[in-house]
Design brief:
The strands form 4 sheets. The protein has a 10-stranded mixed beta sheet with strand order 9-22-21-20-19-18-15-10-11-12, sandwiched between helices. An 8-stranded parallel beta sheet has the order 3-2-1-4-6-7-8-5, sandwiched between helices. It has a two-stranded antiparallel ribbon with strand order 13-14. The chain is built from 18 helices and 22 strands. The chain folds into 2 domains: 6-243, YjeF N-terminal domain (Rossmann fold, 3-Layer(aba) Sandwich), CATH 3.40.50.10260; 252-375 and 383-552, UDP-N-acetylmuramoyl-L-alanine:D-glutamate ligase (3-Layer(aba) Sandwich), CATH 3.40.1190.20. It is 37% helix and 16% strand. The protein is α/β, with parallel strands linked by helices.
Length: 554
């Protein structure tokens, strides 16, 4: 599903109108979708609905929703801000359907608003839409603050802030308390940057139209969105073909999953070599290997320092082991001959979890990327070009954790990366790779990841809430989950192993990054659904991967 900027959405709507699917029709469908969502969530009871109506198209969407809800028998109150009473056909229709109307200009102390907000079951926020920028003024901020005060402004994101992205899905249990429904975006939220006005309401639901907007997935705005529902308003998909960014959907991941034929054997599902671990980080290789197995890889070999082999094997007896030369439990460059002898037997390579930041480990990573090459294809009867003497052929490679830290200390490290490499940094590691002190919390993560993928010539999986996956050529995708349970030690090792396991099963690097990040996050969401948002252990996360797969591939 495409992910759009405000400017891109305006261009799409303009093109749709020019093609005969007019603005009025789109507004009718948008308002109808909002009404449908409200009805679906409150159940069969007759509700008192307060609709905040602004002067623009967002207010028009709200008026259409009000008309439909009033016609369905709900008690609808309109609160109009900077919207002229006449001529306004949408307002006239909403009132004719049975809606009561109050004008902000006739309510200087906002007492009528306060009364309506105190008594309502639902608030439909159609005050301002995607055109809003900066601090609210002219009374809009006072309206939102009054509503927030009267219904109890949620100071933290609601339970539904996991964004189970759907297309107009309004199913769900009736809401137990006042329900806040944002139209397109919560009023006062910048639809591009996610910046918010202090008075912006925390929505339970946000019904956006045609495509999600970038601000829905950027903080602090993402914490005000609640559950995001994408409603179809009849725009042709062809009009968005030039949009580069997209949000990953369940269907998109399911279509890319490798098959599982009944007559398969372990070699069918690929072999993963994990170069990881050190005396102080025994769990990292086991977690990565466990995840590779749980995602479906046929065989996993852990190449680890010899002194920790028994301890790690007790955690993951299903793996095979390659004991490597080491210095005080840290793998050294002297391990290269051992690695070179075996690496061509594997379809995926993972380097970095728990290696440590000791000099020996850094030298090993340097030796590996400097000598590593991807196989070159023959053309007809012409043999592949010979590689430099001493080069080794590497399978597709994931570099994570201390592997990334080692790269960051090499001058021009990206020039050494074999084709098809996947980097999986969290924001601190990303800053190191970029050579900067830190990435600001409000930075455009999509832009950062996209530019990095182009410059470095590899797939970048920038981890965090709404993980970004980018590759050279402009591929930009967002994972639609922000699950706090995943913020636990070892979660990154599980992600790296998941991606490596998918690589081994034949997925291309970008697809492995997208599918791995999505399934990893979905596993966390499934765990949290039963147990809450705290207490997840990384081993439990790895063991949840088959359940996540089952939801995608029953």
């Amino acid at each position: 599903m495409k992910l759009v900027t405000v400017q891109e959405m305006r261009a799409i709507e303009k093109a749709s109108d020019a093609a005969g699917h007019h603005y009025g029709t789109m507004m009718d469908r948008a308002g109808g979708a909002v009404a449908q969502v409200v009805t679906g969530r409150i159940g069969s009871r007759r509700a008192r609905v307060l609709v905040l109506v602004g002067p623009g198209n967002n207010g028009g969407d709200g008026l259409v929703a009000a008309k439909v809800l009033a016609q369905a028998g709900h008690k609808v109150t309109l609160y109009l801000w900077k919207r002229q009473a006449a001529p306004d056909a949408l307002l006239t229709e909403a009132i004719s359907a049975g809606s009561a109307a109050y004008h902000c200009a006739s309510d200087p102390d906002l007492s009528a608003l306060a009364t309506a907000a105190e008594r309502c079951d639902v608030v439909v926020d159609a005050l301002l839409g995607t055109g809003a920028r900066g601090v609210l003024r002219d009374g809009a901020e006072a309206i939102l603050a009054t509503v927030g005060k009267m219904i109890g402004l949620r100071r933290a994101a609601p339970e539904t802030a996991l964004l189970p992205l759907g297309q107009g899905d309004c199913s769900g249990a009736p809401h137990a308390g006042p329900l806040i429904v944002a139209v397109d975006v919560p009023s006062g939220m910048d639809a591009d940057t996610g910046a918010v006005d202090p008075s912006t309401l925390v929505a339970d639901l946000c019904v956006t139209f045609a495509y999600p907007k970038r601000g829905h997935f950027r903080y602090p705005g993402a914490s005000r969105v609640g559950e995001l529902i994408v409603a179809d308003i009849g725009i042709s998909p062809a009009l968005s073909e030039g949009i580069a960014a997209s949000v990953v959907t369940r269907q998109r991941v399911a279509q890319k999953l490798p098959g599982r034929e009944p007559n398969a054997h372990k070699g069918t599902f690929g072999r993963v070599l994990v170069i990881a671990g050190s005396a102080n980080y025994l769990g990292a290789p086991a977690l990565a290997g466990r995840a590779a197995y749980r995602i479906g890889a046929g065989l996993v070999t852990l190449a680890i320092p010899a002194p920790i082999q028994m301890a790690v094997a007790s955690q993951l007896p299903e793996a095979t082991y390659l004991a490597l030369p080491n210095d005080m439990g840290v793998i050294t460059p002297q391990a290269m001959p051992v690695i070179c002898e075996t690496v061509d037997k594997y379809q995926a390579l993972l380097v970095g979890p728990g290696l440590s930041q000791e000099r020996a480990a850094r030298d090993l990573v340097r030796a590996l990327v400097e000598r590593g090459r991807r196989p070159r294809q023959a053309i007809g009867f012409i043999a592949p070009r010979e590689e430099a003497q001493g080069a080794i052929i590497l399978p597709p490679m994931v570099i994570d954790a201390d592997g990334l830290n080692a790269l960051a200390r090499m001058e021009g490290w990206w020039r050494l990366l074999p084709e098809g490499t996947i980097l999986t940094p969290h924001p601190v590691e990303m800053a190191r790779l970029m050579g900067i002190e830190r990435i600001p919390q409000d930075a455009d993560r999509l832009a950062i990841a996209r530019e990095a993928a182009e410059r470095w010539g590899c797939t970048v999986v920038l981890k965090g809430a709404y993980t970004a996956v980018t590759s050279p050529g402009g591929k930009v995708e967002v994972i639609p989950f922000a699950e706090p349970a995943l913020a636990t030690a070892g979660s990154g090792d599980v992600l790296a192993g998941t991606i490596a396991g998918l690589l081994a099963q034949g997925l291309a690097p970008h697809e492995a990054g997208v599918s791995g990040a999505y399934i990893h996050a979905l596993a966390g969401v499934l765990w949290a659904t039963d147990r809450g948002h705290a207490g997840l252990l990384a081993g439990e996360l790895a063991d949840q991967l088959p359940a996540a797969l089952r939801t995608l591939r029953p």
